[in-house]
Amino acid sequence: MTPLPQICETLIDWLNDTNLIAPKWSPTTWETFKFACRVHGVAPLLHQKLRTAAWLEPSIKSWLAEQHEFNRQRVTRMQAELREILAIFDQNNIRLMPLKGSILAASYYDEAGLRPMADLDLLIEPESLPRSITLLEQLGYRERVAHWKHIEFIKPDNQRVVSSEVEHPDNPRGLEMHLACRETFGGPTIELTEWMWKNAADGALLGEKATIPKPGALWLHLVVHATYHIWQGRGRLIQLIDLARLSRHVDNGLALLDTIDARYSYPSLALLKRYFPTSLADPVLATQRARVSTSFQTWVSRLDPVNSSYLSPDPVGLYLGKALRFSEGRPPEVLQALRFALLPGLTELALDHPRLAQSKAPWLAYFLLPLDWARRLVGSK
């Protein structure tokens, strides 16, 4: 077995509290272990589970403790910023729904520092956007880029990466303002926005008023979001752990999954069941598996924590091929995939060329399409 699969298998065992023994790894393999932990976002959780393990090398214990402490400081700072945002939006009667890590770290983890956060994800209603931008500017944020997926904000004095070795509190702490809960798989697209608003209620987060998604709604959104990252080759074990923790609060997963096409749920649920088996009932996965094609099942069966993540040493495959595979031959979605790959709209171009697409001459971004075609045909993460 090559080092990376073995490393991932070991850290999954430890996350599941099984096979708690010291592996006979070389110093080089332990360095690769550290990299895998950072990629998958699980170092703080491993610190919690292994800090009293007598068999673990003291140097690895210290490294895990350092990862946890830096992440704790970072999340503490981000939650303070989130409180400010929630308070000012409530004062101005703007509905604001925290998504992903913004609510997970505060509500579904024993300690917020166990869950890494790259940025704050927040959902607003489109008509609230002008006022929302004004309020964020009052708090010191400036718009960095806008595209079909979300609008990114950052504070001008917080744009420099201080360290790539830890989740440093001074690394950029961005804010992503979503007008929609939507994922596009190179053409095939799933829209959850209206459903998310219908399955949310007034509540509180970090002591401030907010619109809080019900556990089932948050779970379904994260199922789709994890599938999107897996499809892109950017999957992380922390996303599966999020689902495992949320599953304790979800009463009827099958009923929730009936509301969406199984393609958007099966990849993440299959990996969830494989690596955290007690978090998903067998009938739930079996039902979703029966709803996708045999070729789709075969693709999912080959996924693992290496080839579905940034750890993969191999190219992710032809971009257009991935999109067409996801469409499963549905003519409208095949056409969408072709259009998205070959003639994207301006807001889609902004994903790759944000400054140019939002300049005074945004049409110049279309001159870069030949380079984009090459990148999408070759495949990139």
Structure notes:
The strands form 3 sheets. The protein has a 5-stranded mixed beta sheet, with helices on one face. Strands 6-7 form a two-stranded antiparallel ribbon. The chain is globular, with a radius of gyration of 21 Å. The protein has 381 residues and is of the alpha+beta class. It contains 18 helices and 9 strands. The chain has helices at residues 3-15, 27-40, 43-50, 58-91, 101-107, 129-138, 193-198, 215-232, 237-247, 253-257, 266-275, 282-290, 294-301, 319-327, 331-342, 346-349, 354-357, 369-378, and strands at 97-99, 119-123, 142-146, 151-154, 174-178, 182-184, 189-191, 200-205, 208-213. Among the domains are: 79-212, Beta Polymerase, domain 2 (2-Layer Sandwich), CATH 3.30.460.40; 319-378, no CATH class. The longest helix is centred in the first third of the chain and has 34 residues, at 58-91.
Class of the domain at 79-212, according to the CATH hierarchy?
Answer: Alpha Beta
The total of beta strands comes to 9
Order of helices and strands: HHHHEHEHEEEEEHEEHHHHHHHHHHH
- Counting DSSP H or I runs of 4 or more residues, the number of helices is 18
Mean pLDDT reading: 91
Which outline best applies?
A: globular
Structural class: alpha+beta
Q: From the alpha-carbon coordinates, what is the Rg to the nearest angstrom?
A: 21 Å
CATH architecture of the domain at 79-212: 2-Layer Sandwich
User: Strand-residue fraction?
Assistant: 5-15%
End-to-end distance: 25 Å
Percent of residues in helices:
40-55%
User: In terms of per-residue confidence, which ranges show pLDDT below 50 for 5 or more consecutive residues?
Assistant: none
CATH topology of the domain at 79-212: Beta Polymerase, domain 2
> How would a crystallographer describe the biggest sheet?
5 strands, mixed
Strand order of the largest sheet: 1-2-5-4-3
